[in-house]
Amino acid sequence: MAFYFASEKNRREVNEDSYCQMELRVNLEASVSAMVVADGMGGLAGGRFYSEAALELWYRELLHTIMGEGFRGCSLHQQIDALAEFSEHIFEKINGQLYKKGLDTGAKGGTTLSAAIHFWDTWLIANCGDSPIYGMKNGELSLLGDIQNVASQMVKKGTTTEGTALFYQNKNRLTEYLGKRGEVHPFFLRLPQDAVDMILIGSDGAFGNLSMTQIEAILNGQRPSRQMLTELFAQSRASGEDDNQTAILFVDEKSEEELLQTDMYQNLKLGDDFQNATAPFCSYTKIPEEKRESGLRERLRRYRFTGGKEK
After folding, report:
1. pLDDT score of 64 more than 50
2. Angle at CA of residue 114, ends 1 and 207, nearest 5°
3. Domain 2-304: what homologous superfamily?
């Protein structure tokens, strides 16, 4: 597997997005790979506070799941079921904790969170908010997650169509997000590995007003790389987007090898922007300054953080 990522402030003063790509080795044969994007709401420090906190809570609970009795020593199907249960129900727990943090600190806002977990032959797709998750198979793009905003709900009900003035007027009005009072209703999808050869997760600013057809053309127009993501950002800005832009791209290793065998790519080599899945990368979230234990849980936490800086 190969992962690429990029994050830019765009025209905002502060980057309120948080993101992470990680691989947690379970044993010699298996690992849990994941990529997560959280798009903070509330403006400046408030949005960043919520996205950082959501990402940290999500990771800690994932680690707790992997180290728990429902995972260790269990069958493959039980392990996948445990990760599926985590993916589906983690949002309610994060929402409650973020809401409490907001009351305790006085910080107003919230965050979206979109995640994709890969384990053995299964993808687990989940999101709360309007940060899209796209999948690509044989050059065709599809929406894997649910864009939870008023505009998308209006399209589903048939009261407007994508691209109209009414659609864009309601595009930034979220129907679901984390950190609010009351229940949240996230989206969850269990997907076989061979259903996609590419997955793209991003904050809504990464895609701007681009249509799925335009996004598909960008993904098909060049070899997968970080440059592909910056090209996506550039075209999004050209469409009028001024929000923070963050995206993570997964490319199936077999698909990458097949691409490099084509005439178009046979003379190209992987550059410095290539990211090996075993070198996880996180942005913004900090390691607490405290005495660490030497157990497996703590060692896994160390492997998660390899740096990250705002562009």
Report:
1. yes
2. 85
3. PPM-type phosphatase domain (3.60.40.10)
